[in-house]
Every structure is written in structure tokens, then in C-alpha cells.
Amino acid sequence: MKNNFIETQSHKWPQKTARPLSWAVYALMLSTFAFGMAEFIIIGLLPNVAHDLNVSISSAGFLVTGYALGIVIGAPLLTVVTGKLSPKSVLLLLLALFTLGNVLAAIAPNYLTLLLARIIAAFANGAFFGIGTVVATEMVAPDKRASAFATMFTGLTLANIIGVPLGTFLGQQVGWHSPFWVIVALSLLAFMSITFLIPRTQHTSTSGLGQEFRILGRKQVLLALLMTTFGFGGVFTIFTYITPFLERITGFSPTAVSLILVLFGVASTLGTIIGGKAADWKLMCSLLVSLVLLALIEALFTITGHNMITAVVTIFLFGIAAFAIIPMLQVRIVDRAKGATALAAAFNAAAFNLGNAGGAFLGGIIAASPQLGLNAITWVGAIVTVVGILITLWSMLLDRH
């Protein structure tokens, strides 16, 4: 089977005016908003879900792990399976699968149903980002590709600023099922937007599946994926349990936590912008510095998390540092995976979420431990990030030889 989303030259996008193409990219941005809200909404509602479904906080944390593992499996699998379809058809199929998963979550009567629903929705997530990235950058002129990429991914950061905090507040006031209905509505709107705004393309494939998968044999590609897994794994060791941490350790009310999540969303947007500019400047040096700063902030959170003022400041810095590394890691994998762009993007999405799943799982064990508890998740997260730093140093050393 051949994958049709690999080479820029393989697509024959209709020559249209700039305005329709711009709106098409905004349709993708709306989709990433829905995906981002679905992925992160459960974090703000962790105590509510745990109480309502009569499970522990650590068990509820597996809802984050399950979603991440769904992306790990679904991203490369669906990218390959849908390789003979047009990009537009694939995007619509993935959105349909995503909507189905969120409908199931919105009516889930128990923990296992909710976990299954999260996995179904997650299957579509990584593949959508991989294929959507290629579509967004190929619908515009070469000098507008960076802007198209940034516009699409703005939906993810806006989800953290607007969608997750408002969804958390709605879930706390009305019930945790309600935000999933909002996500369903957003998904349907995104489906209609893509239907009408993204052109159907005619294209030919330029590389075979075996050739594409050979990128996994490149040492620097594997190291880039490991950098993503461990570099971002430390973030989710902490962030998965940030709501109970802020409520139980710092002493914030649930309403205050919702506002703090808005602040985190603003910080994540700033971090994405800063990280993008830094990646254009000096990629690997910027990535190394960012990871070191991230590890230091995570470690300091063990101390600053006990005071409301210093906790808020740390959360803001944490958001900037955590999301600054995302564009850097994305650029690194694309640079090292020439000839298999979409598949590399899918594998990197899987690597991000393998880190998310591992971090959430590790954080759950730490949070449930009588000897360690919630306060220990911060310095444990820092240790995971340090592993990412060591892998980055190894990769930089190989670059010099």
C-alpha cells in the first residue's frame, strides 16, 4: 500500500484565490480546537469524574493514559490504512470517528464505557494532526506555509485558553458529561467546514510504504522520537494531576483552578510562539535550553506549590516552557525524516502521547503512593525531563560526527 500524504509535489491542489484557502486553514484550526479540548478536558474534571464514577484519582488518571495510548496506536495505523484515500476524505472520516467517541463519552454510564469512548476518539487524533499538517501547508504558497501551520495549531492552544477552562467550569456546575456534548457540536461544525472549504484533490503517490517505514531505521529519527517521549513525558507526569494538586496541596478552590487553567492556556500560547521563533533561530541549542529550564521549573514546583502566589507564577512559567519545546520537537523530526513527512508527523504525535500516557501512568502511581503522594509528582516529572535532556545531548553529539 502506498501513502498519499508524503511529498509536497504529490498533491495537485486547485489554484484558487488566497481567501478560500485561508478559510480552509481556519476549518482545520476549528478541528484542532475540538481535538485539544477533548484531550485535555478530563484533566480539569478529574476529581468530579472520580467522585461520580466511584473510582480513585489515580484510576481516573488512566482516562488520560487511555486517550494517549489511543493516539499512539491510531496515529501511524490510520495514516497507513487510509493511504489510498484523498486527504479530504481522510480528514472527514477521522472527524466522524472522533465525533462518535465523544458522543459515547457524553452518555457514558460508567468508567469502562468512558475509557472506551476516550480511546475511540483518540484513535482519530494523531492521524488528523499528521495529515492536517500536510494539507494546511500545501494549500498555500510556499512563503505562507509556516503561517498556515501556525494557524492550524493555534486551535490547540486556544483550546487550552478557552475550551478547557470553560468546559471545566461547565462540567463542575452542570456535570462532567456536559462538556463532551460541546465537543460533539464543535466536531460537527468542523466536519461541515472541511466539507465545504477544503478542496478534494487529485494526486499520485511518490513513495511506497516500505520506503516510508525505513525512516524508523535512522538513528537520529529514533532519538528525535525518544526526545519527544521523555521531554514531554515529564510535563504530563505533573499536568495530569494538576487539578487535585492545586486543590489539595496549594489549597485553591475548584473555581480558582479553572481560572488558573486559563492562565496556563495563555502561557502555552506564548510558549508555542517563543518555541517556533527559537526553532527558526538555533533549533537544538534552543531545545536543550528549554528542556533544562523545564526541568528546573518542575523541580522548583515541589517547593513553590505550597504557596498560592508562587504556585500561580510557577504554573505560568511551566506552561511557557512545556509548550515551547513542541514546535522544536516537531521541526526536529521533520528535518530528520525527509521523504515521509506525514508518517513522521504521525509517529511524533504518537511519541508525544506515549509520553503523555507514561507520564500520566507514572504520576498516578506516585499520587497513590502513601510514601510519596501528590507533592512528589513535580520532582518525579523533573527526573523524566532530565532523561529527555540526556537523549538530546546524545543527538547533538551525533550531529557533530
From TrEMBL:
Keywords: Cell membrane, Membrane, Transmembrane, Transmembrane helix. This is MFS transporter. It comes from the Bacteria. PROSITE patterns: MFS. It is a multi-pass membrane protein. InterPro entries: MFS, MFS_dom, MFS_Efflux_Transporters, MFS_trans_sf. The chain crosses the membrane at residues 21-45, 57-78, 90-109, 115-136, 148-168, 180-200, 221-243, 255-276, 283-303, 309-329, 341-370, 376-398. Its main location: membrane. It is found in: Cell membrane. Residues 24-400 form the Major facilitator superfamily (MFS) profile domain. Signal peptide: none annotated. SUPFAM superfamilies: MFS general substrate transporter (SSF103473).
